[in-house]
Known about the structure:
globular; 3 domains; Rossmann fold; Immunoglobulin-like; TIM Barrel; alpha/beta; 8-stranded parallel β-barrel
Amino acid sequence: MNKTRGRVTLPSEGNFLNETKELMERWGADAIRDSDGTKLDDDIKQLDAKIYTTYFVARGHNDFAENRIEECQQLYLMSMFNTAVSETVEIDFMKGYFTEQVQPDYIHDPKKYWEVIDRTTGEIVEPDNWEVDEENNCVRVKKAIPWHEYTVSFLVFAIWDPTHMYNHITNNWGDKPHDIPFDVRGPQSNEYMRSFLTQWLRDNPDTDVVRFTTFFYHFTLVFNNLGKEKFVDWFGYGASVSVAALDAFEKEKGYRLRPEDIVDQGYYNTSFRVPTPAFLDYMDFIQKFVAEEAKKLVDLVHESGKEAMMFLGDNWIGTEPYGKYFEKIGLDAVVGSVGGGATLRMIADIPHVRYTEGRFLPYFFPDTFYDGNNPVLEANENWLTARRAILRNPVDRIGYGGYLSLAYKFPEFVAYIEKVTDEFREIYDTIKGVKPYSGLKVAILNSWGKLRTWQTHMVAHALWYKQIYSYLGVLESLSGAAVDVSFISFDDVISDGVPEDVDVIINAGDEGTAFSGGEYWKNEKLVSAIRSWIYNGGGFIGIGEPTACQHEGHYFQLATALGVDKELGFSLSIDKYFVQPVKEHFISADTTTFDFGESMKNIYALTEHTEIIEYSNGEIHLSAHPFGAGRTVYIAGLPYSEENSRLLMRALYYAANKEADFKKWHADNIYCEVHAYPSIRKMAIVNNSMEEQTTVVYDGEGKSKTVTLVPSEIRWEAFPNEG
């Protein structure tokens, strides 16, 4: 077998030189990295490879941080809800939190920076009516209204970095000191971060790439009193809050934030919440600050002749790779963890860097690499789901992380990754920079738009949750589909209308979330603009509770266009006669078993013009409807699967009125796909399953042939001769 080399990053560790050299050869690695908890020996650093060194800007410097509690990072937290049974209520506000991670901030005046709220009325309790008992971490509320609920929003210092804490617990690091995160807004911390990096760059001449992990503020990850995760939001800005930030925000924006603007009734502005103007202002404020300060560090790295790489994780808050300030940082590269196709595209599509890198799973940690487990299964699934997206837009490099010594004990895993790395290089060398065939332009419409490109419906990166898999499946399907995908916000449509090149808009999510839209759908400019666009030939797909907001006789504000609405009980007195499904439909032609995930209940047809495609249990789960010259499709939910990916593609072509184009560069077997690259006259016929598949393949001219693919095969073929 002819081995290829390059575009692969290998994790290594101390006392593992010979094995590292062996795997470098087998995997064709041209870069070596350390990981959290590992260090590279000098002899490893002398190997013929680029050396990545993990660099923590604001953690791992306990000699500096431990005596400067006033410049530690901070968070706003909210206490549990406390019911008043008399006119006095005592609130143990630290109840449920982990005191090894956070401790109350009594340095700054609680009367100025904390807030007690009557959660029954939403009113702020005047500071004169509550007192803080510092010894017992308790707030005593006077003149409380019996049977009302009260909470305290309070500031804490973060005294243990949450990623270090997670790794500490997972790997049983015992008495290893806890990394204390400091806040670079503090004058001493800001000076320290620059001077330490300057010296570090001198002390690490063998480092080629400084892998910032990441910059200043960790995503929101707070642990409970048992040392387990209490809440986690990969997009959370909670750890960027501080007294210094609050004061600077007031000076820059002209008004003062309330604690409630951050704790948000205990939801902490999760990305599922429709963002408030104040929180959007705060995000903008943090992003601008992070970009300015990060640029100073990147400039130092460049002056030393090294490259600057950012890890899209851990302390990434404020960087927002699709935001308006990211380009100013001047990074060379971004690396991120790949959980599947959507996360692969999230990394690969990032602008303003020279290269991107995906860290594939599994991580070489003992929670996966243990006797009796087969890590090949996870690696295979991870590769096949990500490969679809790579064939649309490849990252420039792939790699792994963790303890190489653990992975080395699993020879089948080592052999499998050897095949993966060769296949990746083959794909990259063939299509990087080549525009793939796209039959349609699809726009995902939500509150976040471009800022959160490929990031909708994620909580802890791309982990599975009951409430999101029916929607995240849409992005996963699209990540490797032959369509161009863009992300637009409701504000974009209100101010500029629908982009002219869009064929189909998708609005997917539960009612009231940032993804469905909530109160946005009361905006007549938004509703009118989209109705007009559909009526004049546009396609619209609603999934779950699209455009949902009870208002003026509709729950779905585009109900008339969609041809369906949801019964909330208000219209039970109105008979619903339209229940007969069509015998067959273009959208469901490849579907044998419907899977709508968590699905939706009580969806009903409004008129006889609604094309009911799937009707069961007295409700509609899949339908289509004409609206003027345009078409709409309703789907109750769409978890990721090969069958659902095909259903979505058919729905897109139907909504766009382009069914005739559906079989251009197409495989009729749902487990196979065709990726075409017209400018180089090549196509990849891909088996996305772990079993042999036979499929009819259609080229761009409508000609077909039958091919058989071995499990997971990717077969490259030249276009047929013209004429």
